[in-house]
């Protein structure tokens, strides 16, 4: 069978700087090709080049054949007739990909009418059919809605509906689920699978998430520095990688399905700048298996197996990384788990409530409702312990965090930080507590003042709390987080993402705090960099005896670093407990769904998994359901409970009840189950 | 932020780079590395030197009148020629420059500082602070500045120029402060401000350390424009006879007088006007270079 899309030696450069170099790949009908790589590896440029969507300044060479027709250098008219018909695209951000001023149904109908000679009514009927196909409830009604009335997951479904409107031969998905929560991601991937079965299209799936590719793709292409470094079947690449970069990438992902705390194996350094590529293998400077021959010239793709090729001259010696027994990468010093003894409580939150008024009108502001962002949350954090606070967007985890950080009296309930109730704090005591509680934010570029040098950034907490000459401490701090003290004169933007986050961590550690609040500290980083920061956090905790409150939406990262985990849903805690207990046998239906939705970077297990798919979206926190907040989406409520049992869910809001030594769930019918 | 000797020695001993990597020093370095900055700074320094040291070498003072030379072209006796009254053009020009430079630079600095502080406080604290400051700036915006200055002119008698500077500055800051307020509100949302708050840094200090430096591009551009505006406003006020009062002179009064004789005695006009243009140009160069030096993402200053 001849390939639908055949890309040969595709190279793209912008003003002499190569962005993509010699990419060759082909997809057949019904096949899924995953392209994985870190940011800047050229995967998005590749897809834009294939679609012919590059800006005028780009120089494209090579060949892209769609159904045997050459696209590179084809006239614009021919490309336009291809796009959307023979080949379509699903973008990362569904909000900016839909026109805000047109109804969703009309936009899909337009996509139909551009390529098919049908009248308006027929196109609209087709649009409703498509919306139904991608699982939008009440499609004929929703077709009349505008994009802003849809949630992120629903918008992405609309995008998929538009992409399959003309039965294309190839669908290119550029990070289609990156902006979505994990349960919604599972829904959207399911829809994509369904759409593919229906149309028989080939899919090119561009992503940085190795878990998504494992379950979804047939073949994988790993890109590094603008070039494919390994191509092959999913099983070959995941279980028998022949390129040290792939090995490193797989070894640096925290796994939600593996207990115990082993240090991750980060890849040292950061990817080369495309303007200054090393003469030899671009990965050589970071490679643990580097030999002199690597730096002589760039290795071609060697045939290492059936349909499996890798760009490494030592591919025969590359062995896959097995958990716990790193073959290629030497594991850094092992971390140990601290037992939860009768240790001092560092942070205690009791019955925390936070509402926001919903106002309307500009001149006379009327209160038209209340957003119950946090509605009664309890947890505590002991000395030397890490509590992971997880939940999807809108679950109230960030509000909880700001309530703690503000150190102001809460609206209802109580917060006790380091033995002091925040409701009874004077200004002096508050400043004192700020010394002992520090925060690290998600985006290191936004949390470091761009106008300050690293020296000034690190000096700020020291000066604020009365240290007049911070010079020596700054050098200490920089070496503590693994940076060169001579970098103090630089500005934050001169550093890479991982280094910036290290600076933010150094600033948080400047005053030797006892409690560190981490707000999604690694979610803005690439996997290979993320692993280094996670390891750093782990070793710092052990060395300095810190306690972490770790807020994240990535459950795998939380399992890796936390001792205990609290799962939040719509402003309340659904389940809380010791990490291994919760991950191995979650009791709350929401936790079960959440855990079953995480894609695992393990193709065989991923294909065999049975997902618990949640229906619909998170209800609005301004109008939460009565009784149990999760009942509207609860698979148990829908399928397993009898009418009488359901009444309890509708009438009574469940409290967190202990199930075992350190695990509790807020469900009337909690039942432990293995889902990962 | 300079390092004490002791700390410098300590850092040297530790083998760390000796130059304090603090912002002040870095910006100064970047400023003087750019050709524009050096040129502008040099010309401005030369202007000051001329204005304040020049009278020492000139045989004439600005009050002297040479009754043997009325409206004479430049000569070894009178380097820039003389006016109709017999006054030495060189001496009066320098005297006028002293006044204009001080008035212009000070008024610009005061007004930009006022705009930055008022705008940043209003935007950072909001609530009552914001309402009061907005009310004051709105009030000043509707007052006709030129008229008020004209009416107040009898107060700016000899020796009263600081009052003149303050009044001038008072009418220059409102529009900028509104822009600053808006930018402060958006800057406040940045995580580095949150980080500083959670670190326990006092609000006023956050404003001066984080908010205002992050608006520095705007403020510097504004200050540079204000220098020109202030000098020109002062010049035009003086031209109409409201600004600097005789016997004191400023570039404005000189240009006003010179314009009448400019056609047949160009030296009475061109020296003054030329120096004014050069000064304003130098200030703009300095402003551009400063903006680049403050902006860490600017490539030109590296």
UniProtKB/TrEMBL annotation, chain A:
InterPro entries for the chain: AAA+_ATPase, ABC_Ni/Peptide_Import, ABC_transporter-like_ATP-bd, ABC_transporter-like_CS, Oligopep_ABC_C, P-loop_NTPase
SMART domains reported in the protein's UniProt record: AAA
GO BP: peptide transport
Residue stretches making up the ABC transporter domain: 5-250, 353-595
GO molecular function: ATP binding; ATP hydrolysis activity
Compartments where located: Cell membrane
Record's bilayer topology term: Peripheral membrane protein
Gene3D superfamilies xref list: P-loop containing nucleotide triphosphate hydrolases
GO CC terms: plasma membrane
Keywords per UniProt: ATP-binding, Cell membrane, Membrane, Nucleotide-binding, Transport
Family stated for the protein in its record: Belongs to the ABC transporter superfamily.
Protein name in UniProt: ABC transporter ATP-binding protein
UniProt organism field: Nonomuraea diastatica
UniProtKB/TrEMBL annotation, chain B:
Keyword Transport among UniProt keywords: yes
Cell compartments where the protein resides: Cell inner membrane; Cell membrane
Stretches that traverse the bilayer: 39-57, 101-126, 133-155, 161-180, 267-290
Protein origin, superkingdom: Bacteria
Keyword Lyase: no
Pfam families: BPD_transp_1, OppC_N
Keyword entries, A-Z: Cell inner membrane, Cell membrane, Membrane, Peptide transport, Protein transport, Transmembrane, Transmembrane helix, Transport
SUPFAM superfamilies the UniProt entry points to: MetI-like
Chain ranges of the ABC transmembrane type-1 domain: 101-287
BP GO terms, sorted: peptide transport; protein transport; transmembrane transport
Membrane-protein topology: Multi-pass membrane protein
InterPro entries named among the record's database cross-references: BP-dependent_transpt_permease, MetI-like, MetI-like_sf, OppC_N
GO CC aspect terms: plasma membrane
Record family assignment: Belongs to the binding-protein-dependent transport system permease family. OppBC subfamily.
Protein name: Oligopeptide transport system permease protein OppC
